[in-house]
Every structure is written in C-alpha cells, then in structure tokens.
Design a protein that fits this description.
Layout (H helix, E strand, L loop, with lengths): L1 E3 L6 H11 L6 E3 L2 E3 L11 E2 L2 H9 L3 E7 L2 E6 L8 E5 L5 H7 L3 E6 L2 H11 L4 H9 L9 E6 L4 H17 L9
Parallel strand pairs: 1-7, 1-8, 2-7, 3-4, 8-9
Antiparallel strand pairs: 3-6, 5-6
Helix pairs in contact: 1-6, 4-5
Family: Belongs to the ribose 1,5-bisphosphokinase family.
Pathway: Metabolic intermediate biosynthesis; 5-phospho-alpha-D-ribose 1-diphosphate biosynthesis; 5-phospho-alpha-D-ribose 1-diphosphate from D-ribose 5-phosphate (route II): step 3/3
Enzyme class: transferase
C-alpha cells in the first residue's frame, strides 16, 4: 500500500498518527524511508543518510525503490518491505508504477486544497517562498490503472487520521488469510 500526494498534504502527520493507533496490529508494517535530510522536529521519522551514504547504499543494491525529489534522495530498503498484506510505504508519485510491478499495490492519495498546502509548507519553515512555489507547481499525476483511494486532509489531524485509518482498514479487509492480497 502506497501513500502518495503533494507536498503539504499532511502525509507524514497522518501516517505517524495512524501508525501510533495501529501499533502492534500484525496486519500492518509501516516502512521507514531513507532520506538525505536530517531529522526535523515534528517531521518524518526517517533514516537520515548523507548523500555519500545514500549513493553507497544505492550502489550496493540496498533499496527496493529509490527516487530523487526536491534535491533529496529517497529510498525504501528491502528489509522495510517484508511480505504480508499491508506494507505501508510513503512513496513519490513518480515511482508508483515501479512499486506496482513488484507486488499488488493500492495507492492512498492524500490531498488538500492548494491554499492549505501552501500554508502548511510555509509553516514548516524549511523553504523560502520560491521553493514552496516550486513544490506546489510540481504536478505529477497518478499513473492510470492503479487502485487509488483518496483521503482529503483538510480538517483536524484526528479527522484526517480517521479517514486514512479507514482506507488502511479497507485494504487490510481485502487480504486473504495468511496476509496475501488477491
């Protein structure tokens, strides 16, 4: 299961909240990304890598999936995507087809109105107005023929988390005994 959507949609926030609520539920594994960015308070709980360490891991074939966006390198290590029904991956829209070629994939697209996206990005304090505008201008449509469910995150964290959790539960409900997706 891939979580995707534009910057500022609240993917990391909702993902962290859903992960906390579903802690200990054996149906779900929440994959941790490797990112060439230092951790930030309130940001994604990722494996921070230097660009050199990222390139070394890439050269050694340690990533199941990898991509570059916004000047950063992102990767999902093989160990972070074990077999089972619902492996939750936060992915770039640009690698969804590659992920779908590896195993059955449901995409949960988290989105929000453009003005809210801009306000959230500004609130992070990580980028100037020009960088925020560039993020918002980056249009990467979802590839056709994927199983996509949409979560609109335009209210409270609790409401968005409830919507995401409902979508996750629906994906898990479709699993066969033994954690296999039909």
């Amino acid at each position: 299961m891939a979580l995707a959507g534009p910057s500022g949609a609240g993917k990391d926030t909702l993902l962290a909240a859903a992960q906390a609520e579903l802690a200990g539920d054996p149906r779900f594994h929440f994959a941790r990304r490797s990112v060439t960015r230092l951790p930030t308070p309130g940001g994604e709980a990722h494996e921070p890598l230097t660009p050199a360490a990222f390139e070394a891991a890439l050269a050694a074939g340690q990533f199941l999936l990898h991509w570059r966006a916004h000047g950063l390198g992102y990767g999902i290590r093989h160990a972070e995507a074990p077999g089972g029904c619902v492996v939750v991956l936060s992915l770039s829209r640009a690698v969804l087809l590659e992920a779908a070629a590896l195993r059955p994939l449901t995409v949960i697209e988290v989105t929000a109105p453009p003005a809210l996206l801009a306000a959230r990005l500004a609130g992070r304090g990580r980028e100037d107005a020009a960088a925020i505008a560039a993020r918002l201008a980056r249009e990467v449509p979802l590839p056709p023929a994927l199983d996509v469910r949409r979560v609109v995150n335009d209210g409270t964290v609790e409401a968005g988390t409830a919507r995401l959790r409902s979508a996750l539960e629906a994906v898990a409900a479709a699993c066969l005994p033994g954690g296999i997706r039909p």
